Amino acid sequence: MRAITFGTLRWYLRLAPALDSLLPRPAGVPGAVRALLVVAAHQVEYSRNAPESIVHTAVDAVRLLGQPNSSGLVNAVLRRFVAGRGALLAALDATLAGRTAHPTWLVERIAAAWDQRTEAILEGNNARAPMALRVDLSRAPASDYLARLAAAGIGSHPVQWSPSAVILERPLAVKDIPGFAEGEVSVQDAGAQLAAPLLQAQRGMRVLDACAAPGGKTGHLLELLGDGADVTAVDLDGARLALVAENLSRQRRSARLLTGDARDAALWANQPPFDRILVDAPCSSTGVIRRHPDIKLLRRPTDLVPFAHQQLAILRSAAGVLAPGGRLLYSTCSVLPEENEDLVRAFLEADRSMAALAMPASLAPGALACGVGVQLLPGAEAGTDGFYYACLEKTTART
């Protein structure tokens, strides 16, 4: 069921237009029936099931949906799709947006930013993301955990450029992952595991995770800092902050949890400056489409400006509570420059107390140096999601 759901979402923008061309009045079809048509079309095009069986099953399903009057429509449309899908899909595949099932506006934005890498990014978005784990290296090396997985008959392999990352050959429910309940491992993309080390936090420093939920990076910071770590985790949403508490409890770690808006200066009124700050900013999530294919359907081009305003406001607020000489890591799971390099550059031009630091040359295979910061592209050489990282330092008092 999960595979069908994700597959339908992944290819919705290729399948739904083909079906619409077969409907006399697409807007008049009930939403549940239209969704069923796309699910069935996905099974016809992308599964090994017999098309005739899929059509019969869809007709049965429309009755279960309480829409018996639509059974004839479903039967007729799907039979026409089965018979003519080659020509229907070929017409859509004439465009890159149609062929890769992406909204046209997003294809255009990615092309403007990444030119010849555009098609590879779109194909990466449509790939199935691997299940990556972060091993708590304070308890055991990753090699020991890999041996434990092998003994349990679970296929896995290390990520050569990341000491803590392990990739499972097949996804598992977390309850079936050895050591997960005990906090020995966490589910976290290998690219996301770069954030905490980039911050270079050391024992005795005050550390802030300004947009903490669901807590993966917070837990990693606590692991690196060890006993007595002074970490404050902030999130706007109290329910999401509860996820942070849940994750930290599982990992046998603790932080100071604070519900509030990181943009609000009043939140920091009684807080001493922080030596290290992680701003993992809310964003368009265009770098994690392979894990969340519904982003292609839900995101709108009009979302980007509000995201950029929010990101810039959080960045300015966080810089205001960064100690002189302190380091701030700005990160997103976006591949769009207006949320990443362009935004950080605008921030630095407005705040001369902050300066960009050089990023490690060998951060991850295929990592692309930007004018400011570094970009990982989804499914590229490193095999990670799409992430942007920029390390900043407070050099003087604000001017």
Question: What does the model show?
Answer:
The N and C termini lie far apart (56 Å). The longest helix is centred in the first third of the chain and has 22 residues. The protein is of the alpha/beta class and 399 residues long. It is globular and about 70 Å long. Helix content is 41%, strand content 17%.
Assembly status: single chain
Cα end-to-end separation: 56 Å
Please give the largest β-sheet.
9 strands, mixed
Identify low-pLDDT runs.
none
**Strand residues, percent:** 15-25%
Q: Could you spell the SSE succession in H and E letters?
A: HHHHHHHHEHEEEHEHEHEEHHEHEEEE
**Global morphology:** globular
Number of strands: 13
Look at the structure and give the mean pLDDT.
95
Question: What's the helical proportion of residues?
Answer: 40-55%
Whole-angstrom Rg: 24 Å
Structural class by secondary-structure content: alpha/beta
Helical stretch tally: 15
Task: Give the secondary structure arrangement, pairings included.
Elements: H1 2-10, H2 12-20, H3 31-46, H4 51-64, H5 71-92, H6 96-100, H7 104-114, H8 118-125, E1 131-135, H9 142-151, E2 156-159, E3 162-168, E4 185-187, H10 195-199, E5 206-209, H11 216-225, E6 230-235, H12 238-250, E7 256-259, E8 274-280, H13 295-298, H14 304-320, E9 322-332, H15 341-350, E10 354-356, E11 368-369, E12 374-376, E13 387-394
Parallel strand pairs: 5-6, 5-8, 6-7, 8-9
Antiparallel strand pairs: 1-3, 1-4, 2-3, 9-13, 10-13, 11-12, 12-13
Helix pairs in contact: 1-3, 2-3, 2-5, 3-4, 3-5, 4-5, 7-8
